[in-house]
Write a structure and sequence with these properties.
This protein has 317 residues and is an alpha+beta fold. It has a domain at 10-72 and 163-198. It contains 8 helices and 15 strands. The chain has an 8-stranded antiparallel beta sheet with strand order 1-2-5-6-9-12-13-14. It has a 3-stranded antiparallel beta sheet with strand order 7-8-15, with no helix packed on it. A hairpin with a 2-residue loop joins strand 3 and strand 4 (146-148). Helix 3 runs parallel beside helix 7 and helix 6 runs antiparallel to helix 7. The longest helix is centred in the first third of the chain and has 22 residues, at 51-72. The radius of gyration is 20 Å and the shape is globular. The chain starts with 9 loop residues before the first helix and ends with a strand.
C-alpha cells in the first residue's frame, strides 16, 4: 500500500508565506495557484476566488490536512476518534467488496519489506509466512466506538487517508463559495467547476515505464487517484518489487503496472485503485461501486477501461 506521510514542519512556513503574500487584497475573483507541503508531499492548489476568500480557503485546507496528519500519521495512536472510525468503516467497505485486496492491516508487511524505513529489501519466504497471520481487517473488532487490533497488528492508512483529506478540504472550500478549483495532494486530487481555460480539467496519467503519459482525462466535479508499481520499488536480480502488497500472499501484487480510478470521492478512488491493482478480478469489484470507473495498464502493455465511463484520450498505440 501507499505510505501516507511523515510529519514535516516545513508545511507551516509554506502556507504562512502564501498568506503573508496576500497584501493587496482584491475583491474581484481571479485564479490563484500555490503549492503547500502536507503528507510528506507537495500539494498543488488552484482556486478561482477573491484574495480574501483565498486566505479563508487556505486556512480551511491547513486545518483539514493538519487534522488528517494528526489522526492518520505514523505517530497517530487514537483508535476511538469519530474521524478514525468513520474512515475505517469506509475502508472496510472496500475490503469486503474486494475480497480483502484492499486491507489496512498490511503495515507489518510494509515494515518487513523495508518500505517504512526507506530500506527496501527482499525478505525470506519464512519471514513473510510468519507475518501473514497478522493480516486481515476481519481480525479487528469495534466495541464501544473503538477499534481493537489483534496482537501484532498495525494499520497502514496510506491507501485512503490522503484522499479523505482531499475530500474534506474540497468540501470546506466549496462551502465558502469557491465554485471552480483543484486540489491535488501528491496524486490524490479533486477538481470542480471549469478550469482556467473554461473547459473540463485535463489530468494526465503518467506512463509507468517511460516519460510521458498513458493518456489524458477530461473531468470536472470528480476525484481521481492512481496506484502504480513505479512509485516506490526496488530491483533485485532483475525483478521489480514494489510497495503495493497482495495481502493474501505477502508479496507485491502482480499483473498490473498502473490503475487510475475516477469517481465522486477521492478516498474511495484511493482505496479502489489499490484494490483493483491487487485483485485478479477488478471488473467484479468495480461493479459494487457503480459511480466509479478505472483505467488499467497491465504488465503486457494493454490498456483497458472498466466501470463507469468518462472522457479519456489514450496517448499510446
Amino acid at each position: 500500500m501507499k505510505r501516507l506521510f511523515q510529519q514535516n514542519p516545513a508545511k507551516i512556513w509554506f502556507i504562512l508565506t502564501v498568506l503573508i503574500g496576500l497584501t493587496a487584497c482584491s475583491s474581484s475573483p481571479s485564479w490563484h495557484q500555490t503549492t503547500v507541503v502536507y503528507f510528506d508531499t507537495l500539494c498543488e492548489i488552484r482556486l478561482y476566488c477573491s484574495d480574501k476568500m483565498l486566505k479563508q480557503a487556505l486556512e480551511e485546507i491547513h486545518q483539514v490536512f493538519t487534522t488528517i496528519e494528526n489522526n492518520f500519521g505514523p505517530e497517530a495512536e487514537s483508535l476511538a476518534s469519530p474521524l478514525t472510525l468513520g474512515l475505517y468503516r469506509k475502508a472496510y467497505e472496500v475490503y469486503l467488496h474486494s475480497d480483502g485486496a484492499f486491507d489496512l492491516t498490511v503495515a507489518p508487511l510494509s515494515r518487513l519489506w523495508g518500505f517504512l524505513n526507506g530500506q527496501p529489501h527482499l525478505p525470506s519466504s519464512r519471514e513473510i509466512k510468519k507475518i501473514l497471520p497478522l493480516i486481515g481487517m476481519d481480525k479487528i473488532k469495534i466495541e464501544n466506538n473503538r477499534l481493537f487490533l489483534g496482537q501484532g497488528q498495525q494499520l497502514d492508512w496510506g491507501g485512503i487517508a490522503k484522499g479523505y483529506g482531499v475530500d474534506l478540504a474540497s468540501c470546506r472550500v466549496r462551502a465558502l463559495g469557491v465554485t471552480r478549483g483543484f486540489i491535488n495532494a501528491g496524486g490524490d486530487l479533486y477538481c470542480w467547476g471549469r478550469n482556467p481555460e473554461d473547459t473540463q480539467w485535463k489530468i494526465g496519467i503518467k506512463h509507468p515505464r517511460r516519460n510521458g503519459f498513458l493518456g489524458v482525462l477530461a473531468i470536472s466535479d470528480l476525484a481521481a487517484t492512481t496506484t502504480g508499481d513505479y512509485q516506490r520499488y526496488f530491483i533485485h536480480q532483475g525483478k521489480r518489487y514494489h510497495h503495493v502488497f497482495d495481502p493474501h500472499t505477502g508479496y507485491p501484487a502482480q499483473g498490473k503496472t498502473s490503475v487510475t480510478v475516477v469517481g465522486p470521492e477521492a478516498s474511495l478512488c484511493d482505496a479502489l485503485s489499490t484494490a483493483l491493482f491487487v485483485s485478479p478480478h477488478p471488473e467484479e469489484i468495480i461493479q459494487s461501486f457503480p459511480d466509479y470507473g478505472a483505467i488499467i495498464y497491465d504488465e503486457a502493455g494493454q490498456l483497458s477501461q472498466i466501470g463507469k465511463s468518462f472522457s479519456f484520450q489514450s496517448l499510446i498505440n
